[in-house]
Amino acid sequence: FTSAVFHRSITLIVSSRLHELVRQQGPFWDLTLCVVMLRPVVTPPLLHYQETNNEKLHKIVCELLETEKGYVRRLHLLDQGFFSALLAEARAAGSFPEEVVRHIFSNISSIHQFHSGFLLPELQRRISDWNQNPRIGDVLQKVAPFLKMYGEYIKGFDRAMELINTWMEKSPRFEKVILDIQKQEVSGNLSLQHHMLEPVQRIPRYEMLLKDYLKKLPKDSPDWGDAHKALEIIFEAAQHSNAAIADMERLEKLWEVYALLGMGEEMVDPSNRLLREGPVLKISFRKNTPKEGHLFLFSNMLLYCVPRFSLTGARFLIKAQVDMEEMEMKDAEIPHSFLVCGTSCTLEFRARWTVGRILSLFVRQVVEQQELGKRAPQWIRDSLVSMCMRCGDKFNALIRRRHHCRACGQVVCWRCSDFKAALQYDSDRVNRVCRDCYAILVGQPDGPAVSERKRGILEKEAGEVSERSLVCSFLTMIDRQGKTRGWFVIPRDEPPVLYMYQAPQDVRAQVTIPLLGYRVKELSPSDKRTFQLSQSNLLLTFLAESEELRDRWVEVISRVVDSEYPGQQRD
């Protein structure tokens, strides 16, 4: 006990006892013999131990070693457990082809042999010799090139997953061998597919640990050069692993869409990519009446579908298919409409809210990029752009005039269009093109590179923000300074902010309005296209192009300011 209160109470008790002794013994009592000093016992504070930099490096290397030991155990399970058992069953009973087993496990035996017979022993030797030789970069640089063998495994990973699922349904013996091993303690109740994903995830793990190691490693360390070179090689290998993980997620999404469409086996292509999907209104050429529909844009085709009621199975019926190679996009006569033209059919659609309109823009961009230089572009109208679509500089009639890129049709300034390239559609004659098209058609421009800098809050392209928006359209804003017509956007994955652009293709916003704290309200029934935003003494009035569009803006803003996000359940 060291508190002052306790110290004072003990002192009072001792003092009263001394007075009692004096009273009993008389005035000749030697008080000096009875002086009692009680001092609190003070424990010195514990010093916080600071790890040395070398100890931090040693800890990272130890983590690398421990995770490597566990990884080798799981490689042994894949190679000597699943692979060997399935191969033996295929050879003995012929219940399933031996070639299928080899396709599934690819070069897992080589990977297992490399890690168990080379990398793990090297790490163990280096840890045991750490005090005399505290470095790991030389070991990793020596083994890093061998990690390229993962490329073959990762390349065949998606196909391996398909084969496992297929043969577990087709062959009871195949399924039994796998399930028996999965039940063993060494498998940890994890599936074969889970274990097979581990080699795909291992390379990014090396990259992460080596990056951490380099952060702690002094620049003048003799291990710096080797560790940095090893990281470059591992980073290249990690790109393949990350791509494989993303590709697996792509396949899962693709199969979900295939199931919704009820596509036959002849139409299923695992190499395909779903680029965009969304609702549209199809316009009949005879009756000029819109009909609810849905577009699915794949990397090789566009599908027009109609919803159908189904408790199980396909939820959409495919009505038309246009291959990407033969597709053309044109503007229709009806506002906000577009034509999709193929060799066998021409379809007219009207955009239904943001999804459909952005889908039409995206289809156009995909087609135009594939046809860049091969087909004359449709020039973007000057009225849709108030600034250079590349650098964002404002146009004016004197020193910064508008120029059209002859390859993509975008409106750019003279500085961004000061490049020349031969265009196939113009009999390979040299034409004026923008910097980006020059890079695609010829190679990287030989002029000075545009300096990279962090973009400000206003420097976000209207098309980029619109593509991931909750709502976007033309509105007329009315405030104390008058009326301003512009392209307004509320992004989906940002804090609630209203962006205002002068034109829908501008690369920089004119104004941003944080929506938190605002209140939205509709005006009188006579003003069916207007709504207001109010905050304290600030009042902004907006005029939409239709009553339906006004209702959409009011709904989205109301939910956003109340911290609800309608983007989670998009129309």
UniProtKB/TrEMBL annotation:
Keywords, in A-Z order: Cell projection, Cytoplasm, Cytoskeleton, Guanine-nucleotide releasing factor, Metal-binding, Phosphoprotein, Repeat, Zinc, Zinc-finger
Top-level taxonomic group: Eukaryota
Gene encoding the protein: FGD2
Any one GO molecular function term: guanyl-nucleotide exchange factor activity
Presence of the UniProt keyword Transcription regulation in the record: no
Biological processes per GO annotation: cytoskeleton organization; filopodium assembly
Naturally occurring in which organism (per UniProt): Scleropages formosus (Asian bonytongue)
One GO location term (cellular component): cytoplasm
Main location as per UniProt: other
Boundaries of every FYVE-type domain copy: 382-442
Gene3D superfamilies in the cross-refs: Dbl homology (DH) domain (1.20.900.10), Pleckstrin-homology domain (PH domain)/Phosphotyrosine-binding domain (PTB) (2.30.29.30), Zinc/RING finger domain, C3HC4 (zinc finger) (3.30.40.10)
Subcellular location: Cell projection; Cytoplasm, Cytoskeleton
Cited CDD domains: FYVE_FGD1_2_4 (cd15741), RhoGEF (cd00160)
Stored SMART domains: FYVE (SM00064), PH (SM00233), RhoGEF (SM00325)
Keyword Ribonucleoprotein: no
Pfam families the record matches: FYVE, PH, RhoGEF, SOS1_NGEF_PH
Record-annotated PH domain positions: 451-562
PROSITE patterns: DH_2 (PS50010), PH_DOMAIN (PS50003), ZF_FYVE (PS50178)
Protein name: FYVE, RhoGEF and PH domain containing 2
DH domain segment(s): 56-244
